[in-house]
């Protein structure tokens, strides 16, 4: 038997993403090439993409992407959707046959809007209604998983290397102004279709390299607000934490980053009084949102991207800029693969977000 030190298990996960700040949409070929160059960071047990701007002709409708284990799960979900949503379209998500992609579930998408009557009866905002519906399907309908629920955006993911998953989902045929991608080496679970990254909710999508040791604390906290963690991967909590802090609690990106990747107490103690009180309050109020363990993440949303490292930068994250494009990835090579001569390349500091939005006035 090989002993420790004699065997190398390549692990890491890879993340990559970019935004065009003018909202120019480009094909998925680049993001596939970028993530594929980091092949040895994954092990073929998960790959996926998030793309913004892909459904311009149906951009006012929520695009629900679903995995179904069987026809019964699909029928049960459609019964639920018919009772709660107006359905513009129901169609199979187009795929190609790829020999390495096996045991794919049924992949389907629906373009939906909550029924006015349901919104009135439940007194929920449209977005809360959608979130609660996603949680209901994922936790109550056996064999059905909503893995994407935003407008004019979509996640595509599964078990396999990302370049094969990209081929499978015909990623090259979509055009987006923001792309993110993930190659997975699962840390705590065997790797299944729902557990691949990105994790999404509404327009938020997240790809992650690392391991969240505060998963239990984070998910118990999220449960109090009605979120249900059903996808069995630690990263899922991050998608819901961002939805809670940014959308529901309306915190700024800066404060949200400080809640998730909080500065050390010793650093807080060295700040001036006003800053110290602010940082103490964030740590006290949002103690259960603190994400412990190593991480580098890219959060995508309709207006931009946010890349963030844990406070001591235990996972790699590089950023670069050229013209209207900003890139972030686990490795510089992944950026140079699709941007030969960046104007600027930098290593973001731990806990300091790289936050890039569409230029003012850009309508997508
Ligand atoms: N190797 C990694 O970075 C894994 C990311 C995450 N913990 C997962 O299981 O998917």
What does this structure look like?
The model has no long low-confidence stretch (mean pLDDT 96). The radius of gyration is 20 Å and the shape is globular. It has a seven-stranded antiparallel beta sheet with strand order 8-3-10-1-16-15-17. A five-stranded antiparallel beta sheet has the order 11-12-13-14-18. The protein has a four-stranded antiparallel beta sheet with strand order 5-6-4-7. It is 29% helix and 27% strand. The protein has helices spanning 29-36, 71-84, 116-122, 126-140, 162-168, 215-223, 236-248, 253-260, 265-269, 273-285, 332-336; strands at 14-20, 26-27, 47-52, 62-68, 85-92, 106-114, 144-148, 153-158, 175-176, 178-183, 199-201, 204-210, 295-301, 304-309, 318-322, 325-329, 344-346, 354-357. A hairpin with a 2-residue loop joins β13 and β14. The protein contains eleven helices and 18 strands. By secondary structure, the protein is an alpha+beta fold. α6 crosses α7 (236-248). The chain binds glutamine. The site of glutamine (GLN) has 15 residues, from β12.
